[in-house]
Amino acid sequence: GAVVSQHPSRVICKSGTSVKIECRSLDFQATTMFWYRQFPKKSLMLMATSNEGSKATYEQGVEKDKFLINHASLTLSTLTVTSAHPEDSSFYICSAGHPSDRETQYFGPGTRLLVL
Amino acid sequence: SQQGEEDPQALSIQEGENATMNCSYKTSINNLQWYRQNSGRGLVHLILIRSNEREKHSGRLRVTLDTSKKSSSLLITASRAADTASYFCATDKYQLTFGKGTKLSVIP
Fold it and tell me: Rounded CA gap, B89 and B22, in Å?
């Protein structure tokens, strides 16, 4: 158990468009999901913590209006990159906390975003 | 600010050898976790060690934690080509904070 999926796995879009990335917990309910961004050969940087039914908590320096997060159900959180620009190109990874193991996060496979 | 710092940044060994990666951190923690990431993929949780633990084993993995030195090590014994990946330590106080990772290459 504890499988997290992301869709799409990779996306190429034009500058100025918006892109939605989905994160799903397939076999468990996740009250909390996390969104990370990873630059090439770099560490993961936490962008925001998403709690089901409430507003996401954003890390310092992350624009709320730029990266819209919605956690509408216990198995789905979405990250929308609005008006994407080339500097938004990155690897976005979500994770979910399992209700029976609050200390471990289960990661999705990531989404590669390329903005042209 | 980044909490964990892995050392070395890159490590290349022959299959069958042991691989040791180190992680140093700056502030107090509840636990420290090690994750593995294959190129272009998500992270896989390997092992968690709590702040009151000194050593933990899981299969070919051995993790140590020295809270006085604020450091941890991950030992992979009898390495295999399939162990080739990047390894990250992550400290957990109020949230997970990841280091930059060690890129391990195991040569068949």
Answer: 9
